[in-house]
Amino acid sequence: MAYQDHIIEMSQLIKSKNGTWDGINAESVARMRLQNRFKTGLEIARYTAGIMRKDMAAYDADPANYTQSLGCWHGFIAQQKMISIKKHFKSTDRRYIYLSGWMIAALRSEFGPLPDQSMHEKTSVPALIEEIYTFLRQADARELGMLFRDLDAARAAGDKAKEQKILDQVDNFQTHVVPIIADIDAGFGNAEATYLLAKKMIEAGACAIQIENQVSDEKQCGHQDGKVTVPHEDFLAKIRAVRYAFLELGVDNGIIVTRTDSLGAGLTKQIAVSHAPGDLGDQYNSFLDCEEISPADMKNGDVVLNRNGKLLRPKRLPSNLFQFREGTGEDRCVLDSITSLQNGADLLWIETEKPHVSQIAGMMDRIREVFPNAKLAYNNSPSFNWTLNFRQQVYDAMKAEGKDVSAYNRDALMSVDYDGTELAIIADEKIRTFQADGAKRAGIFHHLITLPTYHTAALSTDNLAKEYFGSQGMLGYVLGVQRQEIRQGIACVKHQNMSGSDLGDDHKEYFAGEAALKAGGVHNTMNQFA
Predict the structure, then answer these.
(1) pLDDT at 244 > cutoff 80
(2) Which pTM value belongs to this model?
């Protein structure tokens, strides 16, 4: 509803109360309504699911329309990210937020810092979703509040043209609320537990839930060793559980992102149930590392498979886990992905050990033979050494082309000594275009960095501590932080405004009129940053 329409509607409502509501100002109500566009998390989930579906269709039409996100571990971080995007690019289109289970474990658990093994409180996942959207909605209220102040100033000056321009900005305001892709890990238990947690996440505002095919109680970070996968039927039950949660809550277009860790997972806890040769369970078991035996070779407690009339004994480790054959990871990823898409997944996630477009494309080509519109969300992970990986890729390509690489030591390419070389310059350009290249060649619809703001918080804090506690003293803060905020137009330089002080003043004036005791007077030191 347009600004003026809100005012008209409220004016009629106030008038209908026969004078008892005359202390309520219709335009103030209109402002408050526009500053609080989303009343519930479910409204957000439905709205943002529509955005993602539209973006997925746009990507299918042209892979240049890929989407991006950065992982955020606090509502304030997500808010500042979206404010920055609007400042620099004037639009939030195709920019999302990623919510990482790793960062919740490391930064938001009541137990303190934890490894990424689903040990954190699962309620902390929906709590962070709700927190992020609280901060994004406050960003809307803050920005609209500044427009309303500008509107009042234009009216006071009698500037009709400026007044109309600001009214157009209000009516065409783009919200800071964008889709969140939220990590539910391996589901935190059985399918019922997954369903219950998914409901809480959706009610908090999540329109996209990412779930992985690891064993819940053996879950590991995607870039660590010791990962254990589950048979497909176990994973499919959880996919269905998430879909039921979406449908129950009326988010019919909710997005499920299914992640396979099979490329780096060499173990399974279970042998799949198989009823016929070639069924899904049999395909899963076919990747097991087995030895053919005769009945005489069988030992007490052996687990034995019967395949094509042969007795096969899977390799069983002291941990009671079963081992897959080496070199089967890509085949398992392809089967996992096709199976997920056949059972309701919307996007895929293949966790890889390096950022290599050709490797990803090789698997996606096989998947797209069955599902031509298969799309990936891809983890541009900080666990990769991007500099070393791409310098090695360029080194290998140069060597294959017969170029002289004698000036380089492949194992030491991270060295600063190589920073200005031709190889390093080519590698940096490939890093720069990785997302566009992956979107075009490898079906990557969404590029995300899981943990970037974990690293930026550490880096900026280290830089400040080094200067402030050293010889620079207060100048370390002023030069490295405050002056940069002023020069670069960082909204947080006016931290009272960012925290809601001006919004509170507006409300005080609505509620108490001229009697309001406001914080934003002439003696507010934030005026130094006007």
Answers:
(1) yes
(2) 0.94
